[in-house]
Design a protein that fits this description.
Largest sheet: none
Number of strands: 0
Mean pLDDT: 79
Oligomer: single chain
Number of helices: 2
Order of helices and strands: HH
Shape: rod-shaped
Low-confidence stretches: none
Structural class: mainly alpha
Protein backbone atom coordinates (compact mmCIF):
# COMPACT_ATOMS: atom_id res chain seq x y z
CA UNK A 1 0.00 0.00 0.00
CA UNK A 2 1.06 3.55 -0.69
CA UNK A 3 1.39 5.70 2.40
CA UNK A 4 -0.86 8.75 2.56
CA UNK A 5 1.15 11.86 1.63
CA UNK A 6 1.58 14.52 4.25
CA UNK A 7 0.09 17.98 3.87
CA UNK A 8 3.57 19.33 3.20
CA UNK A 9 4.09 16.84 0.38
CA UNK A 10 0.67 17.67 -1.09
CA UNK A 11 1.44 21.38 -0.90
CA UNK A 12 4.79 20.80 -2.65
CA UNK A 13 3.06 18.82 -5.42
CA UNK A 14 0.44 21.54 -5.88
CA UNK A 15 3.18 24.17 -6.13
CA UNK A 16 5.04 22.08 -8.73
CA UNK A 17 1.89 21.65 -10.83
CA UNK A 18 1.14 25.36 -10.58
CA UNK A 19 4.71 26.26 -11.63
CA UNK A 20 4.46 23.88 -14.60
CA UNK A 21 1.19 25.50 -15.72
CA UNK A 22 2.77 28.96 -15.49
CA UNK A 23 5.83 27.86 -17.48
CA UNK A 24 3.94 26.04 -20.23
CA UNK A 25 2.99 29.13 -22.32
CA UNK A 26 6.55 30.45 -22.05
CA UNK A 27 8.00 27.10 -23.10
CA UNK A 28 5.64 26.99 -26.07
CA UNK A 29 6.67 30.53 -27.07
CA UNK A 30 10.32 29.58 -26.70
CA UNK A 31 9.77 26.56 -28.95
CA UNK A 32 8.10 28.78 -31.57
CA UNK A 33 10.96 31.28 -31.42
CA UNK A 34 13.47 28.48 -31.74
CA UNK A 35 11.67 27.14 -34.82
CA UNK A 36 11.58 30.65 -36.32
CA UNK A 37 15.34 31.05 -35.78
CA UNK A 38 15.94 27.62 -37.30
CA UNK A 39 13.80 28.47 -40.35
CA UNK A 40 15.60 31.77 -40.95
CA UNK A 41 19.03 30.16 -40.57
CA UNK A 42 18.07 27.34 -42.92
CA UNK A 43 16.75 29.78 -45.54
CA UNK A 44 19.82 32.01 -45.23
CA UNK A 45 22.09 28.98 -45.51
CA UNK A 46 20.36 27.82 -48.69
CA UNK A 47 20.50 31.34 -50.13
CA UNK A 48 24.19 31.75 -49.32
CA UNK A 49 24.94 28.31 -50.80
CA UNK A 50 23.22 29.27 -54.05
CA UNK A 51 25.06 32.58 -54.16
CA UNK A 52 28.37 30.87 -53.52
CA UNK A 53 27.77 28.39 -56.36
CA UNK A 54 26.69 31.15 -58.73
CA UNK A 55 29.73 33.29 -57.88
CA UNK A 56 32.02 30.30 -58.45
CA UNK A 57 30.41 29.88 -61.87
CA UNK A 58 30.87 33.58 -62.59
CA UNK A 59 34.56 33.37 -61.64
CA UNK A 60 34.97 30.42 -63.99
CA UNK A 61 33.32 32.46 -66.73
CA UNK A 62 35.57 35.45 -66.08
CA UNK A 63 38.68 33.21 -66.05
CA UNK A 64 38.01 31.89 -69.53
CA UNK A 65 40.65 33.00 -71.98
CA UNK A 66 38.12 34.01 -74.70
CA UNK A 67 36.80 36.76 -72.48
CA UNK A 68 39.43 39.44 -72.57
CA UNK A 69 37.30 42.47 -71.95
CA UNK A 70 33.95 43.01 -70.28
CA UNK A 71 32.31 46.39 -70.13
CA UNK A 72 31.64 47.77 -66.68
CA UNK A 73 27.89 47.61 -67.28
CA UNK A 74 28.11 43.91 -68.18
CA UNK A 75 30.03 43.13 -65.00
CA UNK A 76 27.50 45.15 -63.00
CA UNK A 77 24.62 43.17 -64.56
CA UNK A 78 26.37 39.92 -63.61
CA UNK A 79 27.13 40.93 -60.03
CA UNK A 80 24.11 43.03 -59.03
CA UNK A 81 21.69 40.11 -58.46
CA UNK A 82 24.24 38.43 -56.18
CA UNK A 83 24.80 41.63 -54.22
CA UNK A 84 21.04 42.01 -53.74
CA UNK A 85 20.62 38.40 -52.59
CA UNK A 86 23.57 38.69 -50.21
CA UNK A 87 22.01 41.85 -48.73
CA UNK A 88 18.69 40.05 -48.23
CA UNK A 89 20.39 37.08 -46.57
CA UNK A 90 22.37 39.47 -44.36
CA UNK A 91 19.19 41.30 -43.31
CA UNK A 92 17.47 38.00 -42.49
CA UNK A 93 20.39 37.05 -40.24
CA UNK A 94 20.41 40.51 -38.65
CA UNK A 95 16.79 39.95 -37.55
CA UNK A 96 18.10 37.20 -35.30
CA UNK A 97 20.46 39.44 -33.37
Amino acid sequence: MNPIPSLIELDRLIQQLHAQRLCKPELERLAQCSQHVHDICHTASLELGQISSALAGLLTLLDQSEIEHLEREQVYCLLEPFARRLQQAYEALQELS
